[in-house]
Amino acid sequence: MTTKLNKFSKIITQDDSLPAAQAMLYAIGMDEKDQQKAQVGIVSTGFQGNPCNMHLNDIATGVKKEVDLHQDLYGLIFHTIGVSDGITNGTEGMKFSLPSREIIADSIETVVSAQFYDAVIPIVGCDKNMPGAMIALGRLNRPAILMYGGTVKKGHWKNKDLNIVSAFEAYGERLIGSISDFDYKGIIRHSIPGAGACGGMYTANSMAAAIECMGMSLPYSSSNPAISPQKDDEAKRIADAIQLVLEKDLKPRDIMTREAFENAISLIMALGGSTNAVIHLLAMAKAVDVPLTIDDFQTISDRIPFLADLKPSGQFLMEDLHNVGGIPAVMQLLLNEGFINGNCMTVTGKTVGENLEEVAHLTKGQTVIHDTKHPMRKSGHLQILYGNLAEEGAVAKITGKEGELFSGPARVYEDEFSAIEGIAKEVKPGEVIVIRNNGPKGGPGMPEMLKPTGAVMGAGLGKDVALITDGRFSGGSHGFVVGHITPEAHEGGMIGLLKNGDIITIDITNHSINVDLTNAEIEKRRKAWTPPVDKPLSGILKKYRMLVSSATEGCVTV
């Protein structure tokens, strides 16, 4: 056994002045030989209450068994929290979703640092698990590989493929009376058939794909379905790989370079990934001291075509992409077109380009991924907007179906709950729905607006209205939507000064979002503005409001 593999754990296992620490390790079943091994922390975000995470503890057990087969390694399972975005969306519970990212990061950093683990394997599922784990890995900078729990299989009702967003959009149909109670219940009961993260190119799959492209997951980890032979095989592959990165002393900051982040963003643009990728990648970059701003997303979006016909705006799910070649095949296409850098190092000990030499091309004749000559959109779907309504930036999700320009009168709501009611009763075609006081501080927690966008789609208004917010959107949201408006209403941003009827213009071509008001009128409203009277906060939400940065800075707390 070489000392380099156990360079952290030996601090407690090989120091004669720490007999109590060693006694405790004997108590958990480690013998003297085991205490000479490198300790691999296997952190599961598994919990029973969410299909995205319900199977992760079993995966962690399988990974430990494979790790323990290596004579120089000893796996130690621990756990951290999760929040089900699908369950909390449209409720006060969604305010805890984004803060959970920080709790996940802090808890992984805490356990690994305090317990002196030599390497880390996070096993993750729902949206905030991936970036939370990656922020921790960046801070720790110890050999690590992230393993994704995988996507869920399709649901089915009356010969129609379903996923989580089907349930939200069915609610919108119910609001206008265009669906029977029988079909409404049928969709709800059959949307999610079992374990795995939400099936489209939503936030979980977006972030898993980005992290694989960055080189921090094994090839195919992000697109292998949760319940599949390929996912079962990953336990052995990841045990072998963690031994390798330990031997090479290959650490996250060796992999998570500026070029790796550019690769990840390029893949997000090609796939039509979630707007949440912006705040998460910004936060991950900060954790490894890589300079990255929202303007970098625009620069990359300008040169990367949108290629994937994936939900929420398209036809297919991650399961379909898996069947035609998976994320490595898409990366291979992008590499061949010069859109990603093949020289970046990965957790296999090989470069991106070397890994892709070993993968099969996209299946001939497949229609999930368009070729670069016939893209869904010639440039990326994520657009960074500025203007008097977003002086510090906003993020639009424009896939090509919505058009490039929307102008109309504002219909202002102080929260998403009143907006849901308004969508059913008073919103008219041509209006810009404004949902404010949902930013990082204002929410607090920057809740997602999936229920309102689902209601808009279900009510048949998807092509007739725009929706803007200082909150976030789910990866499942689609339509003419603009989020992350900064400064937020809670901080006195212009979105907090809007009134019903103000004419708002969203111009994607010119990357602008403005309200048609004179400077004098804006100044008048600004002087009259008073901070909102907030409900008393305690605990994590109080702490989060005090610490969190703006969406433009990634909603980080340190």
Summarize this structure briefly.
The protein is of the alpha/beta class. The chain contains 21 helices and 14 strands.
Fold and architecture overview:
39% of the residues lie in helices and 13% in strands. It is an alpha/beta fold. It folds into two domains: 37-152 and 195-356, Rossmann fold (3-Layer(aba) Sandwich); 382-553, 3-Layer(bba) Sandwich (Glucose Oxidase, domain 1). β7 (382-387) and β8 (390-397) form a beta hairpin. The chain is globular, with a radius of gyration of 23 Å. It starts with 9 loop residues before the first helix and ends in an 11-residue tail after the last helix. The relative contact order is 0.10. The mean pLDDT is 95.
Please provide the count of β strands. Answer: 14
* Helix-residue proportion: 25-40%
Poorly predicted tracts of residues: none
In total, how many domains does the architecture comprise? 2
Task: Please summarize the sheet with the most strands.
Answer: 8 strands, mixed
CATH class of the largest domain: Alpha Beta
Q: Choose one word for the global shape.
A: globular
CATH homologous superfamily (4th level) name of the largest domain: Response regulator
Q: Mean pLDDT, rounded to whole units?
A: 95
> What is the CATH topology assignment of the largest domain?
Rossmann fold
Structural class computed from helices and strand pairing: alpha/beta
The CATH architecture of the largest domain can be given as 3-Layer(aba) Sandwich
**Termini Cα gap:** 38 Å
Strand content: 5-15%
